[in-house]
Description:
It is built from eight helices and seven strands. It is α+β, with helices and mostly antiparallel strands. The strands form three sheets. A three-stranded antiparallel β-sheet has the order 6-5-7. Strand 3 and strand 4 form a beta hairpin. Helix 2 runs antiparallel to helix 3, helix 2 packs parallel to helix 4 and helix 4 packs across helix 7. The mean pLDDT is 92. Bound molecules: zinc ion. Zinc ion (ZN) binds next to loops.
Amino acid sequence: MLSAEEGIVDAFVFGGPKSKLRSLASPWGAGRAFLYHDPVRDFLKLSDFEVQRPFSGLRENLRKIVSASLVAELLIKTSGGGGDFARVLDMSVDCLGAIEDLGEERVDYPLILFIWRLVELIGLLPETATCVLCGKAMEAGESRLWMPREGGFACPDCRPPEGDAPEAPRLSAGALRWLDRARELPSVGAAEVGLDRSSRSGLRRLCFGLARDAVDGTLESLSAGVGIL
Ligand SMILES: [Zn+2]
């Protein structure tokens, strides 16, 4: 579990599949956990869980399940964002709540925003204002081409011809405006304004790439979610 005070905490849950505690502690509930430290065997045991938000709506839709799994996997693999756990917990609850409340076709908005915010918090968000190749400041209305090897965005002058980088995601001017506007909004509010198909797909691919970079490898939820997310 992710705790506001301690970050990622490992605790055992005892009881069979039908036990009340086990069902209360099923993914992805948010609430107050009561832990007991066994001094002899030196482990933590979950002794009670007061559920405040059960997020049961997440379990009814495959796309929502994969999205929520990706949030959880990122939290575990980044050690809860590495610090400022209270904020990361707020971000996570906000994101899971939005994934639960929104229609299936809009769940990538809170997911994108969660990844962007987490990567920013870890300090791995690439610079979007200047070109990674020539250092020139880029206009707000220009789209940026992601250069994975350089870890930054290329301006129109430096960007390779279309054919050279067919797979590189683009951060469109619309996507930049959306991210800027979403900065201070809860995820559900941010998802009210949609992006055009190509901006949305570019931003999504960019965020999934940033998420993989942040954990230095593969993300099982993304591999399992191919064709779903
Ligand atoms: Zn340039």
